[in-house]
């Protein structure tokens, strides 16, 4: 009986076997392939890559399969694997102005150089369950664009910047970029670190925080200046070569939010920016991220810090779902030593209280 | 009881983490040892075990473990609890080191929530898994402010809390994760060990390392360092005690787990430290139920 | 009026020199200077927006001024620039030799802990580690501010506004500070409660010989408690003198306006 209370190795092994069996499900139905997950559950793969902080569609698909579709668990698997990879160096910054656009919309201009490109979006679909998918009807072929793929598509914020209407953001090449995967975050955090935390952060949490800013908790008047989705080349400069070589291309989604700013005694009024980016196609995440990024700049911009989304410590310490999921679920671990200690204290306190009551009654 | 060393898992570095990461963690450990009780930030990595399940302790152990080490892992004092088994297996697989359940045979003891009853020696390191490293966290949620409080040694609010407990309950009601002052300077959380174990930390010959993975902090108590539990002069620190002895080994001075044996209020008390209990029984010490079982 | 304090030292307790603070283009206070001697009670009056609270915050190390200096005659080291002290020493000063009584008790009390703990906190912070002694000292101070001792373990939120201010005063005086700052300590209270609290403050400040700077818009408070008065308008000092003189024979038109608009105390 005593051993049973302590759990045991055999029970764990059996639990793992049962898990593997349940993951597979009914052996009569065909096993899902990584290719199928990659192709047909591509938004899941995109999210797992983004929050898992590793661009590898196949590994992300494997993580999703192993996690039985639990995306937070899949993100965790991918992060744990990422830990073991050696680091050769950092790539050159990607240039999203050179994105090979598949989707590009702006809510601030009706038309703009390069035009609005809707691309693959749920936006205008009616959210009606499509029963034709039950049997797997082949979709109609999509229309081909007759536009010139080389049409330049300048970024909206760059257009605004030409007029000085929006704050400039000039990269400071001399300041090293922080790396939250290598060093513990220290507070107050700079924007590079904040953006990394948000990019890796839980979509649900970031979404709700971004939403809260729109409801008045740290309102910053956002306009979706531009959202763009497409492929971009990743360059790497090996120290022994001294010039960049292209490693390949990745899909990214970028959101540049244009926000209001009142100006100050020393600076004329200008729009300010919020920024969001993800691997793959994670539009909702990047928009929410841009809202939260802007909210977290309140302190830098001399605004009142009062709302949760503006509270750097609150946001950055709770945004990571691998941390959050682990700690919430650790409550399943045994705590009986601590509980015993509490039991002992409560019993003593109760005994003291009873003794006091008895004393009062005797008087 | 003791499993010999084996060939480590292929495809992974020794003890999972790469050597650069281990070096970074060891630098943080050295800094922590140099400033007893002070929390040192470190670049905590994602581990294949979840946050909150010992990732800090695992990373500390992974950074200090060598091929010749013998590892013991306990959770709630026991070697056979699920989390302890899982972590022990992790190191057996990734480092191929020998593992043991015997406190005396271990060179490294990784623990969650207990310090073994068997006294540790100078040749041992104990690694604590820490969920929340900041002792002032419940008084002040902000890191920027708690860091300042540590820097200025402004620990009054902690004593105010003890004052409140005495005013309200007539005694200090903190029972585990009971705050201590290390080396007369830094306020430290001992991790959620019962206060019963606090005196063992004081002047201990073993090096004590604390790893908090999710919170990305390492701290340490070097060997033979003073660790004092907070109290008032007229309400001195005291530890839990039991009216019972261990039902299996008869020990009267170890920390006991209460085990409910039926739904009519039946219960028994047994040592939380399973190795200690087993050793006593092997040496012929029995409690009321242990002797029955032996006969 | 309490008797004038006779100064036997040559050094003022606090010396404020050309102190200025602005918020962007808005002036908080400009070029303010005064001395405060041990045991002296100074009133700062003016309408809201006149800069009196900004001045108090700058002088009491809660808000760094843009220019000027605040020099305090410390117990150990003699006169020192308050903003030149290390943060550790400044914080120690603020919770031992100084006291700050805020207008809103929420700013001056910790609402999550009992009244007794609030009063005892400063003693604990300077090293008191005997519960019995601490308890006795806290009880003594709560009695001095005429609080019901039976309620010392209750939370501040269960007390009336007047009682909260009494707890705040006890919390500050327990370390026997030499200088206490008060920002509208009685505003927002009923008139009868105000009168009793003012009496208490006058009695404590007088018997303990505590120097005090009181910010108020209420000339009645100034007349009752202070030796000297500073009148502020738009961030600047427009009149400064003995309280009786300022109130009975105001020189500046703004002071004349202020004085003529109050009811006789």
What does this structure look like?
The complex is a heterotrimer of chains A (363), B (295) and C (265). Chain A has 363 residues and is α+β, with helices and mostly antiparallel strands. Chain A has helices spanning 2-5, 9-24, 34-40, 42-52, 57-66, 71-83, 156-162, 191-200, 203-214, 283-296, 312-318, 321-329, 336-362; strands at residues 100-105, 222-236, 245-259, 272-279. Chain A has 2 domains: 9-82, no CATH class; 96-120 and 147-168 and 177-319, no CATH class. Chain A has 13 helices and 4 strands. In chain A, strand 2 (222-236) and strand 3 (245-259) form a beta hairpin. In chain A, helix 8 (191-200) packs antiparallel against helix 10. Mean pLDDT of chain A is 89; it is low at 1-5. Chain B has 8 helices and 12 strands. Chain B has helices at 19-34, 55-64, 82-94, 143-151, 156-169, 198-201, 274-282, 288-294; strands at 40-41, 70-75, 98-99, 108-112, 125-129, 180-182, 186-188, 207-212, 217-221, 227-229, 256-260, 267-271. Chain B starts with 18 loop residues before the first helix and ends with a helix. The radius of gyration of chain B is 20 Å and the shape is globular. The two termini of chain C are 13 Å apart. Chain C is 37% helix and 25% strand. In chain C, helix 4 (115-125) crosses helix 5, helix 5 crosses helix 6 and helix 6 (161-173) runs parallel beside helix 7 (191-208). In chain C, the strands form 2 sheets. Chain C has a 6-stranded mixed sheet with strand order 6-7-8-3-9-10, with helices on both faces. In chain C, strands 2-1-4-5 form a 4-stranded antiparallel sheet, with helices on one face. The chains are: A alpha+beta (363), B alpha/beta (295), C alpha/beta (265). At the A-B interface, helix 1, helix 2, helix 6, helix 12 and helix 13 of A face helix 3 and strand 11 of B.
């Amino acid at each position: 009986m005593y051993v049973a209370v302590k759990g045991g190795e055999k029970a764990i092994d059996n639990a793992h076997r049962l898990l593997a069996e349940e993951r597979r499900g009914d052996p009569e139905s065909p096993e899902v392939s990584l290719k199928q997950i990659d192709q047909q559950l591509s938004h899941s793969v995109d999210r797992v890559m983004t929050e898992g902080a590793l661009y590898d569609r196949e590994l992300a698909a494997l993580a999703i399969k192993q996690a039985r579709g639990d995306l937070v668990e899949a993100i965790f698997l991918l992060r744990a694997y990422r830990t073991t990879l050696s680091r050769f160096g950092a790539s050159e910054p990607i240039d999203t102005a050179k994105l090979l656009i598949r989707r590009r919309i702006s809510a601030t201009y009706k038309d703009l150089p390069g035009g609005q490109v809707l691309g693959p979006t749920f936006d205008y679909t009616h959210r009606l369950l499509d029963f034709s998918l039950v049997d797997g009807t082949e979709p109609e072929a999509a229309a081909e664009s007759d536009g010139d793929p080389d049409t330049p598509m300048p970024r909206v914020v760059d257009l605004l910047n030409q007029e000085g209407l929006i704050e400039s953001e000039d990269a400071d090449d001399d300041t090293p970029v922080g790396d939250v995967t290598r060093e513990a975050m220290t507070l107050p955090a700079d924007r590079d670190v904040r953006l990394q935390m948000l990019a890796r952060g839980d979509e649900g949490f970031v979404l709700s925080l971004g939403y809260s800013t729109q409801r008045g908790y740290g309102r910053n008047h956002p306009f979706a200046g531009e959202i763009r989705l497409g492929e971009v080349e990743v360059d790497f400069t090996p120290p022994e070569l001294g010039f960049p070589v292209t490693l390949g291309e990745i899909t990214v989604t970028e959101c540049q939010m244009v926000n209001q700013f009142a100006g100050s005694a020393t600076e004329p009024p200008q729009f300010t920016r919020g920024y969001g980016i993800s691997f793959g196609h994670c539009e909702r995440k990047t928009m929410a991220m841009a809202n939260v990024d802007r909210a977290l700049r309140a302190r830098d911009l001399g605004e009142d810090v009062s709302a949760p989304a503006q509270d750097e410590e609150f946001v950055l310490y709770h945004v990571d779902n691998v941390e959050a999921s682990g700690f919430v679920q650790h409550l399943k671990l045994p705590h009986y030593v601590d509980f015993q200690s509490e039991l002992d204290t409560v019993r003593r306190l109760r005994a003291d209280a009873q003794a006091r009551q008895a004393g009062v009654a005797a008087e | 009881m003791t499993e010999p060393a084996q060939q480590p898992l292929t495809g992974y570095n020794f003890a999972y983490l790469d050597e650069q990461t281990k070096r970074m963690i060891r630098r943080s450990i050295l800094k922590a040892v140099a400033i007893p009780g002070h929390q040192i930030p470190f670049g905590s990595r994602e581990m294949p075990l979840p946050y909150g399940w010992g990732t800090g302790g695992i990373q500390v152990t992974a950074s200090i473990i060598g091929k010749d080490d013998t590892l013991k892992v306990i959770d709630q004092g026991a070697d056979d609890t699920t989390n302890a088994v899982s972590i022990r297996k992790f190191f057996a697989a990734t480092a191929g080191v020998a593992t043991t359940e015997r406190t005396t045979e271990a060179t490294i003891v990784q623990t969650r929530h207990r310090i073994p009853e068997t006294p540790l020696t100078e040749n041992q390191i104990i690694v604590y898994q820490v969920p929340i490293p900041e002792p002032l966290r419940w008084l002040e949620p902000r890191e920027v402010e708690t860091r300042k409080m540590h820097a200025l040694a402004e620990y009054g609010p902690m004593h105010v809390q003890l004052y409140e407990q005495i005013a309200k309950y007539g005694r200090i009601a903190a029972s585990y994760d009971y705050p201590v002052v290390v080396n007369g300077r830094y306020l430290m959380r001992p991790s959620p060990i019962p206060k019963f174990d606090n005196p063992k930390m004081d002047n201990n010959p073993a090096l004590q390392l604390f790893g908090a993975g999710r919170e990305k902090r390492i701290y340490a108590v070097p060997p033979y360092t003073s660790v004092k539990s907070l109290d008032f002069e007229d309400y001195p620190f005291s530890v839990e005690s039991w009216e019972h002895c261990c039902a299996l080994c008869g020990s009267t001075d170890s920390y006991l787990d209460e085990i409910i044996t039926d739904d009519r209020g039946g219960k028994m008390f047994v040592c939380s430290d399973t190795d200690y209990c087993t050793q006593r029984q092997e040496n012929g010490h029995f409690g009321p139920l242990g002797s029955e079982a032996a006969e | 009026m309490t008797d004038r304090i006779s100064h036997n030292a040559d050094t003022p307790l606090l010396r404020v020199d050309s102190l200025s603070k602005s918020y962007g283009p808005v002036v908080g206070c400009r070029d303010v200077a005064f001395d405060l001697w041990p045991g002296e009670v100074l009133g700062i009056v003016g309408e809201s927006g006149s800069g009196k609270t900004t001045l108090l915050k700058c002088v009491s190390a809660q808000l760094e001024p843009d220019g000027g200096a605040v020099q305090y005659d410390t117990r150990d080291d003699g006169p020192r620039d308050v903003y030149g002290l290390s943060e550790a020493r400044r914080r120690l000063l603020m919770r031992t030799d100084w006291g700050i009584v805020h207008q809103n008790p929420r700013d001056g009390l910790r609402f999550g802990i009992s009244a007794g703990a609030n009063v005892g906190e400063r003693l604990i912070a300077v090293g008191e580690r005997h519960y019995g002694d601490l308890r006795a000292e806290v009880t003594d101070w709560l009695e001095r501010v005429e609080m019901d001792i039976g309620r010392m373990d209750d939370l501040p939120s269960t007390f009336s506004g007047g009682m909260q201010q009494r707890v705040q005063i006890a919390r500050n005086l327990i370390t026997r500070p030499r200088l206490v700052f008060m920002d509208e300590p009685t505003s927002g209270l009923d008139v009868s409660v105000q009168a009793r609290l003012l009496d208490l403050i006058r009695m404590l400040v007088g018997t303990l010989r505590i120097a005090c700077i009181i910010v108020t818009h209420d000339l009645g408070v100034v007349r009752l408690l202070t030796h000297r008065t500073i009148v502020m308008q738009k961030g600047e000092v427009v009149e400064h003198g003995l309280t009786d003189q300022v109130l009975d024979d105001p020189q500046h038109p703004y002071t004349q306006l202020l004085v003529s608009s109050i009811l006789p105390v």
